[in-house]
């Protein structure tokens, strides 16, 4: 270890134990951690890109199935969840700024609000999932219209005016749409849960005063990047599943 490096550790060691021994400064540690986080986020983007490609291919080949399936989604709940996540991105960005300024109280409040937004998102998603389960609109299942046959027929007559389309076949194959719906939104929900767990970990550390050092805020920033990616993915999922006819 160089004399300068040793001197910096001697100088900062009394203030914070969070500078790893193999880094020469908090700045270097932060940049290394951020690079690693971006590499991880790229792998997440690649994961969802595969799902978006599958969505695009299947929708291009079977647009009528998506057209009918989307009629069973509640766009108002989807829009509410979009607003909730957008607001949570604001509070998470605010939390990062509070960490940079070593403002512990503001950091804790912003993290708690972000967690509450995540709980709200999952709560609304639970309502949607419970409704689909009750209606029998499940994944990998041939949907046989029974008690909802009139609704299906009404949607078809009002919005599917192409006589060459076999409407009964479309109704049976709506389950394919919900296979894609549950796969994409379910995987996203798991990422929301993972993000909330990370925010909870950061919150515990914030309460303990780990981010009171003016140069140590990396974990908050990294978790913030992850949360923003989760929000961005939903911004694409919402119009693709709920709005595009």
CA distance, first residue to last residue:
63 Å
- Shape annotation: elongated
Work out the helicity level. Answer: over 70%
Mean pLDDT metric: 82
Low-confidence sequence ranges: 1-15, 141-160
Radius of gyration: 23 Å
Number of DSSP E strands: 0
Number of DSSP helical runs: 9
Helix/sheet category: mainly alpha
Largest sheet: none
Order of helices and strands: HHHHHHHHH
Name the descriptors:
elongated; disordered N terminus; 245 residues; 9 helices; mainly alpha; 0% strand
Question: Would you kindly provide a written description of the structure presented here, covering whatever features stand out?
Answer:
- This protein is mostly helical and 245 residues long.
- It has nine helices and no strands.
- The relative contact order is 0.16.
- The model is unreliable at 1-15 and 141-160 (pLDDT under 50).
- The protein is elongated.
- It has helices at 3-12, 26-61, 63-69, 75-100, 104-135, 149-159, 167-172, 174-207, 218-243.
- Helix content is 77%, strand content 0%.
- α2 crosses α3, α5 (104-135) packs antiparallel against α8 (174-207) and α8 (174-207) packs antiparallel against α9.
């Amino acid at each position: 270890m160089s004399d300068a490096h040793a001197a910096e550790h001697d100088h900062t060691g009394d203030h914070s134990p969070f500078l790893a021994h193999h880094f020469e400064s908090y700045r270097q540690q932060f940049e290394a951690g951020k690079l690693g986080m971006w590499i991880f986020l790229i792998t997440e983007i690649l994961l969802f890109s595969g799902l978006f490609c599958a969505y695009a291919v299947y929708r291009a080949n079977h647009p009528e199935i998506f057209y009918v399936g989307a009629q069973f989604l509640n766009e108002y709940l989807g829009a509410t969840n979009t607003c909730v996540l957008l607001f949570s991105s604001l509070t998470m960005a605010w939390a990062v700024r509070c960490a940079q300024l070593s403002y512990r109280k503001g950091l804790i409040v912003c993290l708690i609000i972000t967690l509450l937004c995540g709980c709200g998102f999952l709560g609304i998603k639970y309502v949607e999932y419970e409704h689909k389960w009750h209606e029998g609109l499940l994944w990998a299942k041939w949907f046989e219209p029974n008690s909802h046959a009139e609704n299906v027929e009404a949607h078809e007559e009002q919005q599917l005016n192409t006589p060459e389309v076999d409407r009964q076949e479309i109704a049976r194959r709506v389950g394919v749409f919900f296979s894609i719906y549950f796969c994409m939104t379910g995987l996203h929900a798991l990422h929301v849960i993972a993000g909330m767990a990370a925010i909870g970990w950061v919150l515990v550390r914030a309460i303990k005063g780990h981010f009171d050092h003016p140069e140590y805020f990396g974990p908050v920033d990294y978790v913030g990047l992850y949360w923003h990616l989760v929000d961005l993915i939903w911004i694409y999922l919402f119009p693709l599943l709920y709005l595009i006819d």
